[in-house]
Structures are given as C-alpha cells and as structure tokens.
Amino acid sequence: MSESANPTADPADPDEADEADAADGAEPADGARTPDGAVAAAATPENGAAAVVAALESADVQTAFGVQGGAIMPVYDALYGSSIDHVTMAHEQGAAHAADAYGVVAGTPGVCLATSGPGATNLVTGIADASMDSDAMLALTGQVPSHMVGSDAFQETDTTGVTAPITKHNYFASDSTTVGDVVGEAFALAGTGRPGPTLVDLPKDVSFGETDRAPAAPTPPERSVPDPEADAESVEAAARAIERAEKPLCLFGGGVIKGNATAEARAFAREHEVPVVTTMPGIGSFPEDDELCLSWAGMHGTGYANMAISHTDCLIAVGTRFDDRLTGGVETFAPGAEVVHVDIDPAEISKNIEADYPVVGDAGTVLGQIDAAMERSPAAREWCEQCADWREEYPMDYAVDPDEPVKPQFVVEAYDAATGDDAIVTTGVGQHQMWAAQYWTYTEPRTFVSSHGLGTMGYGLPGAIGARLAAEDDREVICFDGDGSFLMTIQELSVAVRENLDITVVVLNNEYIGMVRQWQDAFFEGRHMASEYDWMPEFDKLAEAFGARGFRVDEYDEVAGVVRESLAYDGPSVVDVHVDPREDVYPMVASGGANGEFALTGDQL
Amino acid sequence: MAGPRPDERPQPTARRNAEGIRVDPDAEAARPRRTAVISALVEHEPGVLSRVSGLFSRRQFNIESLTVGPTTVEGHARITLVVEETDPGIDQAKKQLMKLTPVIAVGELGSDAVRAELVLLKVRGSEPDKVHAITEMYEGRTLDAGPRTITVQITGDERKIDDAVDAFRQFGIIEIARTGQTALERGDSPTTPGEEPGHSAATDDAAADGTSADGDATDQTTPNYDD
Ligand SMILES: Cc1ncc(C[n+]2csc(CCOP(=O)(O)OP(=O)(O)O)c2C)c(N)n1
Fold it and tell me: Is it the case that residue B51 has pLDDT exceeding 70?
C-alpha cells in the first residue's frame, strides 16, 4: 500500500488523502499510536471508540444506521467485527429517520452515526424530527480532534451547539476513559421518562485515545428518572372529576404508545365506556375498529372526533402535548371541558391547554391508579349515543368513478384490506400522509410511523427501512409517499435494494406537492406557485434502475393486481400510482379555527 | 360527504383564553406580568449557560437578567434569572429549566429574599466633591478618579441601583455596567428546593461573624473550597 505523498495530510482522513488506504498503516495525525508504534485498530480494542461500541453492545443495540467519514472512522473501525449490524445509508438524514423509525417500532432507542461537519448537520433534520415526536434515539457524531475544536478546522461544526435545542441532552466527549459511560448514559437517557433524541459528539482523539476501562452499564442520570406513580391526591381529584362527567372523552396521544400503556388505556376506556379519540401520533393506541373509537382529532381528523372534542365536558387527555394541529385555536378547544391531563413530563401540564386536574406520572401506571380510585363509571349513555350519531352524520368517504383518475383513498384502503393488523405504515408528509392516516384502520400501536410534529417530507422511505429492520420478517412494511416527499430521500432506495428489504413504497403521485396545491386553492386563489411538479420521473422505472421492482397504476382495474404483486414481491418495490391530482384532504379544520367547524369541502373553509 | 354545514352544527358557547384557560368572568382579563427571581442550581460544566440562555430565547421567555457563579459545592453553580412573565409563563419557565439535564434544582425566590446587584458608573470628573457626596449617599466606593472621569461602584437591590443611576445622571454618565440581580433566600430556607450547602467549619464561622457587612455582592458568591 502506498504511503501518502503529502506528509502533512492526515492519511486516516479520506477526505484529505483519498488515495491512502486508511485501514492499512495509516498514521492518524491526531496521535493514535499504540505504545509499540502500531496504529490502533479493531485488533486492539482498548481505545475510546471501542468503548463506545462496547457501550452500545452492552445496551443491546443490534442495528445502527449511518454514513462513514473522517472524524467518525475510529468508531466505525471499532464496529468492525462487532455484533452490531451497521446499515450504511445514502444520506445522514436517512440514517436519522431510519434510527427514529427503528426506535418507534422496536420500542428501544434507535442509533445513528455520522461524521463531523456535514455528516452531523445532515442529521439535524432527523434529530429535530425525533425531538418533536419524543422518539428515543441516540446520535453519535464524529468531531475534529479536541485541539482543533474552535479553529474552524476542516469539517468542523459546533455540533453540540447546533443540536442543543433539538436534543433531550447532548454530550461533548472529552475523555477516552469515560466516553463509553457517556454513550451508555446518553442511550439510557434517550429512552427514559419522556423519550427523546440524545447526541454524543466524539472528537477523534477521544475515540483514538487509549483506555482499558469497560464502560459502565447504560444508566440514565438519576435526576432524569421520573417517578412513575402520580401522587394520590391528584389521582383522587381526577377520579372524582371523571365520575361526575356526563360527556367524558378519552384523548390518547403518542405518549400512550411511547409509554407502552395501550393495554391500560384500552382497559380504562372499555371498563368505563368512555369514547376515545386519539391524536395523530396516538394512532394505534386504541383500535380504530372498536365502537368506542372515534379515530383521530385535529386539522384533518374525523368530523366525529372533532365534534366530540368540541362538546365533551371532561377530557381525559393522556400523553399528549396539545399541539396546535390537534387543538386548532386554543380558545375553542374543548371549551366546556374540565381537563384531566396525565403526562410523564410536568412541563407539558398547562403549557398549551390549562389542566384542571394535572396528574404527573407514567401513563399506564396513572391510568391504573385512576381506575382504582374510581368508585363508579360516569353516566354517559346519552353521550355515547350522540357520538355514534356524529359518526353517522360525518362518515369518512369519497367518490369513486371508474372513468376518472384513481382516488388515493381507494389505494390506501386496498392495501389495508390486503394486509394484516400488524402491518406497519410509514409516510412522507403531505396529503398522502393524511389519507394514509384517515383511510387505513389501525388497530395496533407502533404500526403508524410518521413525522408528526416536524412534518418532514422524506421521512417515509428511510422510516420504512428503519421499521423493516426493527420488525419481524413476516410483517408487511408499506410506505405511502408523495411524489415530492419521495424525491427528497429517494436515494435510500439503494439501501433497500442492497439490504434486500421487503418494503413496498406506494407513491400517491399527483404531480403536485399536493398539500401546498390544496392550500393555494383554498387560500391563495389557486395560484400554484412552485407546487406543480409535472416533471416527475417515472418512479417505476427509477425503481428498476435502483434494482427494485417497479409497478405503475393508472386505472382502477389495475389496483387489485398490483397490490397483490407488490406485496408478494420479496424485496423493495415501488408502486407509482397516478392518482387524481385534484383530490383534496377533508375534513379540514382551518389553522387556528374551531375543531367543531371542520370543513367538508373547499367552500366551507 | 353528508352532515350539516359548519354554521348549522351545534357549537359550544364556552371559551378559553389565549393561555388555554377556561374562561370564567374573573379570568377573562389579560394576565398581568410580574417579575420573578428564579434560582437554578446547576452542574458547573461547559455549555450549561448557553443551554439555559438558549432555552429562554427559543421559548420566548422575557428575561431581564441572568447572573452565574460557583457555589460552596464544588462542581455546582448557581444561575439567578430575573424574568418578567405571567404566572403560567413563570411556571413554564421553571419547569422547562428543570428539564435540562445539568439542572439540579430550581426555586423561585420569595419577595423577602436577599437580592443584590452591582453597578459600575463612569461619570464626568468636573465636580469630584459632588460625585463623592452622591457616592457616599449610596454607600458606594470610588474605584477610579481622574481629572476627566470618576468611576464608582454601587451595590444594593434593584431599586437602590435605579435611584443611584438617576442621581448620577446630573454629572453625565459616560459608561455604565450592571451585573443584574443575584439573590439568596433569607435565613435557613434553601434557595433551591432540597439544596444542601457544602460548607466547612471555617465557612460556618465566617457566616456567623457576619462577613460581607459592606454588602459587596461579589463576596456572596466567592467560592470556598477549603473543605
Ligand atoms: C422538508 C419539507 N419541506 C417542505 C415542506 C412543506 N410541505 C408540506 S406538505 C408539502 C407537499 C408534499 O407534497 P408530496 O410529498 O408530493 O405529497 P402530497 O401532498 O402531494 O401527497 C410541502 C412542500 C415540508 N413539510 N417538509
């Protein structure tokens, strides 16, 4: 192997010396020589990077997603021969989304890796996304060597500074001996209490530095471990309020799923016969085919869910942060309701909606406590009937005309009918996301994996990759994507092909960035500025170019066959469905509007 | 789709206010802002100040001042924040602060807490006697006096500092530097809940014979690591 011709270049850094073989005899300029002069490598695991990997192994991490690069190379080198399955992604944003979705499906924090500078900044969108959805995730980023930090060195970014506002906590590793402990702590913290993303920035010298210490077992900082039980007084007060309600309504948020409280939540609602609405992240917390379930409320939620929210006198809100897509204008949100708010994060209580009965604790534990404290169920027969009437009055439907372009809702329903209850749906962001949420009947938690709070176009495909690797092989993973969203992370198709992942990407192709087009029609007099995407590639052919199977659908009578074939195909497939470009998402609550005033058509906005 | 149009549907008449509080006639009035002094005990590690200040700016809390310094416990620091917010805003600020991992404890100080601020004032030196008189009046100290400028230091509560600044205006204030308030709870009450001061016998003695009698604010935060 050749020596680097440039003595000042760092041959361990392929960005600077791309001809040098980094794995062989490379001399890291940052001083990573072992005492006998050999360069630290996988065979000598006693360095910071090996401690990082040991910490991940001791946290039982099985899969990690990332992209190589100069500053993270020592960690990658330590992954060589590790039991951890590393999936190289095409773009770091994909790595972050994949790790996020992996975490959602697996119920343990997903892990992603990136190098310093552009690697780290590419992760940012995915970290922010995980943060907004309280998804447990650990990001490991390489950093320039400590002595160069602050000098605007090649590929240097103040990663902890950039990610401070979008992480639960981040760490700048400063010591090879403790770096393994830090990574373990960060991993544990991500999944503790209210989950969220954490990050450890790893300067190259810390990764290369010697240590012979095995990292401590992953443990979160003591202060960050919340008490699962709520205090008895607040439980009592909440129980009394629920007992006397005449129009009680459960509102289950993403926290019910993240807190593994679906069993308790289901038992509570059924035992006391309280109708249930969910938030969008709460989809799957309660079976949508249960007669108590009114599906999800909010901007594009069902009419009946929004009517129920508007008229309830006691809202039992569990694990929700009352996001504005749920509440509309706060002035009109559940205006007559006493609010019982159960959350593990005290800062969510009365942040957006004042809680009359705050109950801080773990969702499942607290629901059990409230249930035990209740002496009777609320008398809500009439209210339940009212909710059933609303369901009749505002059904979710759409018109099918065989001579017209295919309705996107029809495609969603066709895939739902062809798959089991445990199939996992991921989505991009836009109209297709709403149809996937509205027209698929979710019955299990962790089956709807989407970008809620940040609303990140491009989440769908890398999300499907993460979900696929977290789920058992016999579960279907379907990504409903928009043409615009798909294009944002389409390069990850190369990963799906390389790993031969059984994923079906269904592109609801309307040749618009449709949600924008819908708003332009509603609020900008139909001026389609920059929302017409009539230069869309042929996604089925593109899929074939990547090595995936491609399908195309233009007519209704092609749907059933393609659904069958695409699901049967054992590998990644892309179904380019040319849907009605004029179809809009309804019902719709205008931003900041009253939930009960949802529009069913454009002229009601 | 069927179902009555928005204007034909039953709509509730009740309302909440902008803070999400169900409107009853008393609560309808806009919530007044008040000034709160919040004390946060934090791990003294790099970046903690930027985490705290970043939190306040991105959550749009109205921050008046922020001071920071070590405590008697090695590795701990105290951040004193003065915020002007509504009651729910102050509550939210405290809870968000508490969520930061390096934050150990957060307390809001009572109205009788001991508070102090330090200001340095540079005024024109043409009337040294008059400047000196005002400095005496506010129990300040002259730190530098030259033919053209005089620099004085005043410490005290916010009101006293404001008054002093007003009094010095007559000479023409050239430059001013204020530290912002720092504060401790009075007597035996801990400044942040559960705070356990790390102190040695020497510290106790010093406290017992009442050092800092001159009210020098810096003395209050001088760390004592000799235990
Ligand atoms: C990264 C990103 N950029 C911009 C937006 C704004 N945005 C929200 S929905 C949307 C349109 C999405 O279009 P497409 O993916 O084709 O889905 P469709 O609405 O047509 O189903 C856009 C541009 C966004 N959410 N995310």
Answer: yes
Clarify whether A154 is annotated catalytic: yes
Q: Which residues contact A129 (CB under 8 A, 6 or more apart)?
A: A96, A97, A100, A135, A451, A453, A454, A456, A459
CATH architecture of B114-182: 2-Layer Sandwich (3.30)
Q: Would you call B11 and A596 a contact, using CB atoms and an 8 Å cutoff?
A: yes
H-state helical runs in chain B: 48-58, 87-99, 128-137, 158-168, 201-208, 217-221
CB atoms B16 and A333 under 8 Å = yes
Give the model's confidence band at B86: pLDDT under 50 very low, under 70 low, under 90 confident, else very high. Answer: very high
A92 part of the active site: yes
Does the structure's ipTM exceed the value 0.90? no
Return the SS3 of A214: coil
Which of A354, A397, A596 comes nearest B19 by C-beta?
A354
Q: Where in chain B is the domain with CATH 3.30.70.1150?
A: 114-182
Closest residue on chain A to B96 (Cα): A347
Cβ atoms of A346 and A360 within 8 Å: the answer is yes
Asked if A247 is an active-site residue, the reply is no
CA distance A534 to chain B (A): 30
Q: Does domain A232-393 have CATH number 3.40.50.1220?
A: yes
- Separation of alpha carbons B94 and B34, rounded Å: 14
**Amino acid identity, position A306:** N
- Cβ atoms of A112 and A99 within 8 Å: the answer is yes
Give me the amino acid identity at A256.
V
Is the CATH number of domain B31-108 3.30.70.260? Answer: yes
Whether the ω angle into residue A109 lies within 30 degrees of 0, i.e. cis, is no
What superfamily in CATH does domain A48-224 come from?
Thiamin diphosphate (ThDP)-binding fold, Pyr/PP domains (3.40.50.970)
Of A156, A168, A187, A204, the active-site residue reads A204
**pLDDT category of residue B198 using cuts at 50, 70 and 90:** low
Contact A312, A328 (CB under 8 A): no
Q: Which of A515, A518, A520, A583 is catalytic?
A: A515
Contact A346 B100 (CB under 8 A): no
- What is the reported pTM? 0.91
* Mean pLDDT per 10-residue segment, chain A (605 residues): 39 43 39 40 66 97 98 97 96 98 98 98 98 98 97 97 98 97 98 98 97 94 96 98 98 98 98 98 98 98 98 98 97 97 98 97 98 98 97 96 97 98 98 98 98 98 98 98 98 98 98 97 96 94 98 98 98 98 97 96 91
Instruction: Pick the atom of ligand 1 nearest to A428's CA.
Output: 15
pLDDT at B77: 96
Residue given tokens 């960050």 in the structure block:
A224
Closest to A117 in 3D by CA, of A83, A77, A146, A144: A144
Instruction: Please determine, for residue B30, whether its predicted confidence score (pLDDT) is greater than 90.
Output: no
Q: How far apart are CA A552 and CA A536, in angstroms?
A: 14
- Atom 9 of ligand 1 has which residue's CA nearest to it? A430
CA distances from B104 to A166, A229, A493, B199 (A): 21, 21, 45, 18
Listed residue (A266, A321, A238) closest to A445, CA to CA:
A266
B148 has a chain A CB within 8 A of its CB: no
